[in-house]
Amino acid sequence: MYMTTKISEVIACIEQMAPLAYQESWDNSGVQVGDVSQEVKAVLLCVDITEATLNEAIERGANLVISHHPLIFKGIKKLTGRNYIERVIIKAIQHNIVLYSAHTNMDKCLGGVNFRIAQKLGLKNIRVLAPEENYLYKIVTYVPQSHIEQVRQAMWSAGAGTIGNYDCCSYSSEGNGTFRAQVGCNPFVGEIDKLHTEPELRLEMVVPKDKSGRVVAAIHAAHPYEEPAIDILSLANDYEQLGLGCVGELEQPITETEMLHYIKEKLNIQYIRHTQTSDRLVERVALCGGSGAEFIPHAIREKAGMYITADVKYHDFFNTENQIVIADIGHFESEQCIKEVFYEQISKNFINFAILMAECDKSPVKYSYLAED
């Protein structure tokens, strides 16, 4: 029997890896244009959605285009075709094509853009360079002893209690809760209009912000009380499982100059803007796909020998004080591997439609060398 897949299912697959909650506040990841309830015919993967990209999707029969960079960042008040963004929107609607983007949410997640670059470079012990701040909560509830395991399991199943590579983490302590049920209540224990004291366990777990709503709902569903007490506390801890950039070690140290050649080979790029190199050995490498100059201090703190990123400004090259080599490999070049990430995430979940790499997907930046007279 022929199995069909809706576009919404493909999008859910991408967001399982990179939830939209991960994106930066200024970003606009997600559905840009189109009806996601339609059946997928084929998917075209790209870094940027351009007129050429959309034309390729039409020619190759794709009705879903997944890009890294969102087509739409600013509000659109008119659709008159005055620029390429408006022309792409109009044409996508005319051809019933859905445009979807996964940008900073895919930059931040484990296995996303930065981790793929690190893997291509053969780095080991890969970890997040700039972990997300203010993303962790501690959720605390108070449970009668008879239902502690039921509520604990529900919270774990909803995504609470994971710390690094450990899951099922929780803490509980004994105490006594007091309450008085008013008229109209249906208390699990105690009587109407009488003060009741109940031996309870304080149950607490760490949970990332994007899963906190599910955990609270799970507590309500598993808890025997009509009105369970639930505290949600914001933590100052960094969330090491989420963030921009990453850092890791080479299998064998090589010189700074050799490292530049190694980057060109492994990432298939031609040009690198960089600071002065020497015969110093590089063992630890930090990187951030796209515009990552703001994380140069993070790379220095990590004692990386080289920092790979893009869009480095002139004066940023001065600020390293010769502590680290900065290698600017280009914005598009640093993120072109996103298509591989998309492809693998989709192909391991679906087999009944074509997944296409955009052939016209190229950097808009060109380099020319003029011969001297």
Descriptive account of the structure:
The protein has 373 residues and is α/β, with parallel strands linked by helices. 26% of the residues lie in helices and 29% in strands. The protein has 11 helices and 15 strands. The chain has helices at 7-17, 51-59, 84-94, 104-108, 113-120, 148-157, 212-222, 256-267, 296-301, 331-335, 338-347; strands at 30-33, 42-46, 64-67, 98-101, 124-132, 136-144, 171-180, 195-208, 230-234, 239-255, 273-274, 281-291, 306-310, 325-328, 354-357. A 6-stranded mixed sheet has the order 5-10-12-13-14-11. Strands 1-4-3-2-15 form a 5-stranded mixed sheet, with helices on both faces. It is globular and about 95 Å long. The model has no long low-confidence stretch (mean pLDDT 95).
Averaging pLDDT over every residue, what do you get?
95
**Radius of gyration in whole Å, from Cα?**
26 Å
Shape: globular
> What is the count of β-strands?
15
First-last Cα distance: 69 Å
The largest sheet is:
6 strands, mixed
Structural class: alpha/beta
For the biggest β-sheet, the strand order reads 5-10-12-13-14-11
Please bin the fraction of helical residues. Answer: 25-40%
Low-pLDDT segments: none
Order of helices and strands: HEEHEHEHHEEHEEHEEHEEHEEHHE
Compute the number of helices. 11
Please indicate the percent range of residues in DSSP E strands (runs of 2 or more): 25-35%
List keywords for this structure.
373 residues, alpha/beta, six-stranded mixed β-sheet, 15 strands
